Amino acid sequence: MSTPTTKPGPPLWLLLELTYRCPLHCVFCYNPVEFARTEAELDTAEWIRVIREARSLGAVQLGLSGGEPMLRDDLEEITAEAHRLGYYTNLITSGVGLTEARVGALKAAGLDHIQLSFQDSTRELNDFLSHTRTFELKERVAQLIKAHGYPMVLNCVLHRLNIDHIEAIIEMADRLGAEYLELANTQYYSWAHVNRDHLLPSKAQLEAAEKTVNAWRERSGGRMRIFFVVPDYYETRPKRCMNGWGSTFMAITPDGTALPCHTAKMLPGLPFPNVRSTSLREIWFDSEGFNRFRGTGWMKEPCASCDEREKDFGGCHCQAYLLANDPYMADPVCSKSPHHHVVTEATARAQTPSAVPEKPLIYRGPKESLLLSRGNDG
Amino acid sequence: MNTVADTARPAIGRGFRLQWEAAQNAHVLLYPEGMVKLNASAGEILRRCDGVRTVTEIVADLEKAFGKTGLASDVNAFMLMAVGKGWLEIAA
User: Fold this and answer.
1) CA atoms of A19 and B29, how far apart (whole Å)
2) B32 and A CB contact within 8 Å
3) Distance in angstroms (rounded) separating the CA atoms of residues A304 and A297
4) Shortest Cα distance from B70 to chain A (angstroms)?
5) CB distance B24–A57 less than 8 Å?
6) pLDDT of amino acid A1
7) Contact A58 B31 (CB under 8 A)
8) Which of the two residues, A361 and A284, has the higher pLDDT score?
9) A338 touches chain B (CB under 8 A)
10) Which residues, in sequence order, are bridge partners of residue A155?
């Protein structure tokens, strides 16, 4: 039985992954490892139907993401319709393709907000990690964003290879006039999971980074707000993933698959409907995929009798699947999980500064995607 | 600042948007990747903050609309909190 006892609220936050195409090749990308096997992207009319249906269910926040959403030349058209419908529209971009003309057109279409991602503050490492030469472009784009009256919101994914540069990252963000800087450590799914041993920072690195962030907050008197997020591998309780499965969030992948979280498609045996054949109302309220982990009825021990089960809902099912091979288990980040040792073994390995992982660092790309997902051909 | 001047003309802060959401039966404030669901009185105050009306005019309008008097201090306290959160801006 997976029918929830109470009717869920509206899907307030809708994320459109407009394309998996991307000029970057980030080693921590959360797009599925097998992205290159995805079917054709939804067309303009299909995306517009999706946002209309979701809006009528009560969706208010719209994320326009990817891949790199600037690769869709109908981004302005989708944005204009979203604005007309009353969404608060957020563009999540690497900045590649965000020219003066397109920023102007997006502004005219009613785009509310732009979040620009950086890999690092130093060009060498930025280009190494994203496998392309984009740093100077991002600097230009940051200036364009400001010039069009948008708040400057920078996002830099942290990990073992760049976290020691955190002071330079903060200074760069401040120089660019950032009002918000999100320094979130990598979450270990998809490409980041493949590359985890390269990316998981040591405890000492994390503590030093946090100290730098706090010192900067004190010095700067709040002219730039910094959000610093530690990797959950160093926690003893899991995150309240997606604010609860099927409670708030719906993602639509480029081919129209509707998901309750960015990475849920990896879960075996869980069918997720496609917007090409199913209405969003039916998907949100009636589909097996969205109902499966709603509430607490699905839980096994130790979650079922845990007094924190309503607080974190057992954490992340994808992490339970990746680390314990069972999405019904407690998230192994939890110290009560019988699989918690998998997490502590990974963090233990990360404490050795000179440890060289056995596997090479793998860049996200179509060729690598096909190779890594070869076993999934059936 | 411990009060909002009576002559100030508060407006919804940059990056925030106020709108009525039928699905939630409430006014909400939207901002990047977030939302505040407002209670009825907060919604009634904020929807009058158009950058044109003064605090005095807003209080008068609220008192007239709801048949009450003596709302000034509550409204001012709310506006002060809202300015602190960036929901409202006072043009210089």
Assistant:
1) 29
2) yes
3) 8
4) 35
5) no
6) 41
7) no
8) A284
9) no
10) A117, A182
Which residues, 6+ apart, have CB-to-CB distance to B22 below 8 Å?
Answer: A58
pLDDT digits (tens, 9 = 90+) for B30-74: 998 889 999 999 999 999 999 999 999 999 999 999 999 999 999
A15: three-class secondary structure by DSSP: strand
CA distance A302 to A318: 17
Task: Assess contact for A222 and A178: CB atoms under 8 A.
Answer: no
Query: Nearest residue of A to residue B26 by CA position?
Result: A58
Q: Does residue A320 sit in helix, strand or coil?
A: helix
| Contact call for B30 and A115, based on CB within 8 A | no
- The secondary structure of B34-83 as a DSSP string is EEEEPPHHHHHHHTT-BSSS-HHHHHHHHHHHHT----HHHHHHHHHHHH
The residue-averaged pLDDT of A182-205 equals 93
Q: Are B29 and B36 in contact (CB under 8 A)?
A: yes
User: Cβ(A111)–Cβ(A103) under 8 Å?
Assistant: no
* ipTM for the whole predicted complex goes beyond 0.90: no
Are the Cβ atoms of A112 and B15 closer than 8 angstroms?
A: yes
Give the rounded distance of the alpha carbon of A288 from its chain centre. 23
User: In the numeric block, which tokens belong to residue A127?
Assistant: 């280009």
User: What DSSP element (H or E) covers A11?
Assistant: none
Q: Label residue A378 by pLDDT band (50, 70, 90).
A: very low
> Is the Cβ pair B21, A115 closer than 8 Å?
no
**First-to-last C-alpha distance (Å) of chain A:** 29
